């Protein structure tokens, strides 16, 4: 429950910073997340960036949220993270309640995704999802 | 219930009730899906009884079936069945009978005769695999390496176990995930059914019970999480309940398959079975992956319909149970009793043995499955058991007007003699008086494999078994499937009519009949 509470608060922060994030997405010298497979014109894209195995799913170093427009693809710049490697988790908040909804068994009922090569089965791990951040030249793919 | 954090590892564990899955390299020496495919092909070429296990290759339609004998004029309605019907893609063949994709069969009995439509349930899994031309997700008993992301049970849902029409909607059901709705007239798949917001991908079991008032009762379970659904006669969700089962997940919870309802209670047999998805993921199958714990008792969970948190559990001697016949309440001097009959197997070798062997074309003894009657006293917590050991039987059904009431008769396919090439299938039909144990039987003969049979009430009648018994059977000599229609009170004389398809169908599990009163 501790973790859950934290994620909630992180996501609350994220809602407040949505406008800033949008402004940031134009920045050219920061690594870019290339998000694909979104359901167009529905809800918000919610992003969380972690910088270590220890903080994965616990304490993001960067969060972002942006309304999903007519395109199923979005690009978001992630600036000012001091890490060589990051892992990115994402979900599409369809109903705007700022959390990833689950059914009573804990299975997500909204679309989710992660960077790297997330396991085909179950939740992403740091190992599966970590990608190079510092000096990244190609966009970091997040496939829904 | 626990609300989990964003994609916690507990979320993945909940996906199918299993612990952290790692798709390791398949043991090179194990029997692979490709070996199953070639072995089955060789065996089926020499055994005409194996034909239905080839599976269907396309949807089916026949406008007018051949009618033998005289169909009762008042027998009008839609007879649905479902079962695993697609077993092979590319070079692979499933390693468990339960793995095949569902195909709903619909026989329409009208003034014009009998027509048949069979359609694969177009699940997310079926769509993805049809497009890919190969299996892309793991199955219940086959460790297919996932080639696309599994986001919950419905990623693997085959909707292959039962079909029912309720309030004009047709549902194809599985055990671990959502029911899929199909169009009543075309059997086109409409999609997964979510009964209420936030209940996407929730388990909706394959054996809902339709009470005589038209309410549909069902449960779903995953490990020790248990859910109850009550859908009213108009098709609206009336209520759901959530309960936590007091069972040891190391021994129980892998296959809570069927249920009974009485006027006030819901009853679910909980056999000591665990399914080890982590091992299946490594390519293990059969007894290594589906464990029937031989030393553990059978548990029967009994709960008031209006508050399932007040459940009681009765323990019975060890055995495997898939199916319940019926249950009812009665009052005794020492308190309320629930009387329930079910089919049990003390030496079960079906789940992890015969149902695996058949997929490679091998015939293995499934163990005896026999009818029992258990009487459970809710006041004393004591249970007593009666066994009927005069043959092997399964797929029990009864007069639908007596579901939850003191029905006297149960109908089952049965076998009492061996058939060397068809030992996996039943050769006869029987109606058992569950009070005296006496049976009336009809032997279909050596050419047939007999499937589940249903009791259909004669319109306007009220007496138990006033009506017909209908069911499918595969004829190995003709390589065709038929529907037989019996006078329910006199099956020994054989069917009054038989309706023949010009083709065979995969052997199925379960079905239901929806009567139509007014013909157009
Ligand atoms: Fe069943």
Summed up:
The complex is a heterodimer of chains A (144) and B (520). With 144 residues, chain A is α+β, with helices and mostly antiparallel strands.
Task: Give your account of this protein's structure.
The complex is a heterodimer of chains A (144) and B (520). Chain A has helices at 2-16, 18-24, 126-129; strands at 32-36, 44-50, 62-67, 74-77, 85-93, 112-114, 130-132, 140-143. Chain A has 144 residues and is of the alpha+beta class. Chain A has one domain (32-143). Chain B is mostly beta strands. The longest helix of chain B is centred in the N-terminal third of the chain and has 14 residues, at 33-46. In chain B, the strands form nine sheets. Chain B has a five-stranded antiparallel beta sheet, with no helix packed on it. Chain A binds chain B through residues 3-4, 6-7, 48, 57, 89, 91, 99-109, 112, 114, 118-125, and chain B through 1-15, 20-21, 23, 138, 146-153, 198-203, 222, 225, 227, 242, 281. The structure holds fe (ii) ion. Fe (ii) ion binds at residues 161, 206-207, 257-258, 322-323, 509-510 of chain B. Residues 161, 206-207, 257-258, 322-323, 509-510 of chain B line the site of fe (ii) ion.
């Amino acid at each position: 429950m501790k973790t859950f509470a934290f994620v909630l608060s992180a996501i609350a922060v994220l809602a407040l910073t949505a406008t800033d994030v949008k402004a940031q997405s134009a920045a050219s010298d920061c690594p870019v997340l290339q998000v694909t497979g979104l359901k167009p014109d529905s809800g918000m894209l919610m992003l969380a960036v972690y910088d270590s195995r220890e903080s994965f799913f616990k304490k993001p170093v960067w969060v972002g949220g942006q309304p999903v427009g007519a395109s199923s693809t979005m690009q978001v710049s992630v600036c000012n993270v001091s890490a060589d490697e990051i892992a990115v988790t994402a979900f599409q908040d369809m109903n705007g309640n700022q959390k990833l909804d689950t059914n009573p068994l804990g299975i997500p009922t909204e679309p989710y995704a992660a960077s790297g090569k997330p396991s085909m089965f179950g939740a992403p791990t740091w190992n599966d999802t970590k990608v190079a951040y510092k000096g990244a030249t190609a966009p970091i793919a997040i496939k829904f | 219930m626990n609300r989990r954090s964003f994609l916690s590892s507990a979320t993945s564990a909940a996906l199918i009730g299993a612990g952290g899955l790692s798709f390791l390299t398949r043991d090179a020496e194990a029997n692979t899906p490709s070996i199953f495919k070639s072995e089955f092909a060789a065996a089926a070429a020499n055994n005409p009884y194996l034909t239905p296990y080839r599976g269907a290759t396309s949807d089916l339609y026949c406008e007018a079936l051949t009618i033998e004998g005289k169909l009762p004029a008042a027998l009008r309605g839609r007879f649905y069945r479902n079962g695993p019907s697609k077993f092979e893609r590319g070079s692979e063949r499933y390693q468990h009978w339960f793995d095949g994709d569902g195909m709903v069969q619909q026989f329409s009995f009208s003034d014009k005769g009998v027509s048949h439509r069979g359609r694969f349930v177009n699940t997310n899994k079926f769509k993805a695999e049809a497009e890919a031309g190969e299996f892309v997700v793991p199955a219940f008993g086959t460790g297919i390496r996932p080639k696309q992301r599994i986001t919950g049970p419905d990623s693997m849902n085959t909707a292959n176990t039962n079909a029912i029409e309720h309030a004009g909607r047709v549902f194809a059901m599985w055990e671990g995930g959502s029911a899929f709705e199909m169009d009543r007239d075309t059997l086109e798949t409409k999609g997964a059914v979510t009964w209420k917001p936030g209940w996407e991908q929730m388990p909706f079991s394959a054996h809902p019970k339709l009470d005589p008032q038209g309410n549909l009762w069902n449960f779903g379970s995953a490990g020790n999480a248990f859910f109850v659904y009550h859908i009213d006669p108009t098709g609206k969700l009336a209520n759901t309940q959530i309960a936590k089962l007091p069972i040891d997940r190391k021994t129980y919870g892998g296959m809570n398959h069927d249920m009974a309802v009485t006027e006030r209670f819901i009853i679910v047999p909980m056999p000591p079975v665990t399914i080890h998805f982590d091992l299946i993921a490594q390519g293990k199958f059969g007894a290594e992956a589906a464990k029937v714990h031989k030393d553990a008792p059978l548990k029967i969970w009994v709960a008031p319909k209006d508050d399932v948190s007040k459940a009681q559990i009765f323990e019975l001697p060890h055995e495997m149970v898939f199916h319940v016949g019926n249950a009812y309440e009665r009052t005794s001097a020492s308190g309320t009793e629930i009387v329930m009959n079910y089919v049990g197997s003390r030496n079960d070798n079906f789940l992890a043995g015969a149902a695996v062997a058949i997929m490679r074309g091998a015939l293995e003894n499934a163990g005896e499955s026999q009818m029992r009657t258990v009487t459970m006293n809710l006041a004393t917590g004591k249970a007593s058991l009666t066994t009927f050991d005069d043959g092997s039987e399964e797929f029990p059904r009864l007069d639908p007007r007596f579901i939850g009431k003191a029905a006297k008769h149960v109908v089952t396919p049965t076998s009492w003699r061996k058939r060397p090439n068809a030992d996996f299938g039943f050769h006869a039909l029987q109606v058992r008086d569950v009070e005296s144990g006496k049976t009336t039987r009809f032997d279909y003969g050596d050419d047939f494999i007999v499937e589940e049979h249903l009791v259909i009430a004669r319109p306007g009648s009220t007496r138990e078994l006033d009506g017909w018994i209908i069911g499918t059977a595969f004829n190995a000599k003709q390589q065709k499937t038929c529907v037989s229609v019996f006078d329910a009170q006199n099956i020994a004389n054989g069917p009054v009519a038989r309706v023949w398809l010009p083709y065979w169908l995969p052997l199925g599990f379960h079905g239901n009949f929806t009567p139509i009163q007014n013909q157009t």
